[in-house]
Design brief:
This protein has 221 residues and is of the alpha+beta class. The strands form five sheets. Strands 3-11-7-9 form a four-stranded antiparallel β-sheet, with helices on one face. A hairpin with a 2-residue loop joins strand 4 and strand 5. Helix 2 crosses helix 5.
Length: 221
């Protein structure tokens, strides 16, 4: 018999129970591979998100010079590194380009019309069900493998599609707000660094390069 559950906090208008479903019924593997070198931009799928590899490594591309046979990632599709040394996996969605490529260590998949991709991303990256599932996959040694056929065996508790979309959109807005404030914080840190360099004397100087208005005396040792 199918187990039914519901969360403590929900959007108004949703009362149906969530249901345990086999993830394999909702995700679709994508197996297209490159047929020529650098057919599409090379991606790096990291715990901080998905990046163009040249941006991530400051202008360098560390992928093999021969990247024929790499996995292709269409826009809106998932990719992730299938192995982890600490049970943490990060599922990223391609929102960078129409197509990119990753090594064969990174499976690629999408969802069918009954599962919202953003909702699934938050469930996999932040939810307790996936953490419990990944722990079960650890079979000796220090490394855990999460091949796509294993992921498809996961049982995930999900609501109806409309509620999935509401949840995915809600957390996406929160992430966008966090990213905006993070950029502001980074700019402030850079600004502080610049002021620290200019508001103290250096190289034997008696005054700093930048001072508040009204101060002109030399600094003294």
């Amino acid at each position: 018999m199918m187990s039914k559950k519901s969360p403590q906090l929900r959007f108004e208008g949703f009362t149906d129970d969530w249901e345990e479903r086999n993830l394999g019924d909702y995700i679709i593997q994508y197996s297209e591979k490159t047929k020529q070198n650098n057919q599409y931009p090379v991606f790096t799928s990291s715990r901080n998100g998905l990046f163009f590899q040249k941006d991530y490594y400051k202008g360098n591309q560390i992928a093999s010079e021969d990247n024929i046979g790499y996995n292709i990632v269409p826009r809106g599709y998932f990719t992730y590194r299938h192995m982890s040394d600490d049970l943490v996996f990060k599922f990223n969605i391609n929102d960078l380009a129409d197509y990119g490529i990753v090594s064969t260590l990174y499976p690629v998949f999408t969802t069918n019309e009954q599962l919202d991709s953003k909702y699934l991303q938050y469930q996999l990256n932040e939810g307790s069900e996936f953490r419990r599932f990944s722990l079960l996959q650890k079979q000796g040694g220090s490394r855990t493998y999460m091949y796509l056929n294993k992921l498809q065996n996961m049982i995930l508790t999900i609501p109806k599609l409309e509620e999935q979309k509401k949840i995915g959109s809600f957390f996406k807005q929160l992430d966008d707000t966090i990213a905006l404030h993070q950029r502001k914080l980074d700019l402030l840190k850079e600004q502080k660094k610049g002021y620290l360099q200019k508001m103290f004397p250096k190289n034997g100087a008696k005054v700093p390069e930048l001072r508040f208005a009204g101060f002109a005396d030399d600094w003294e040792e």
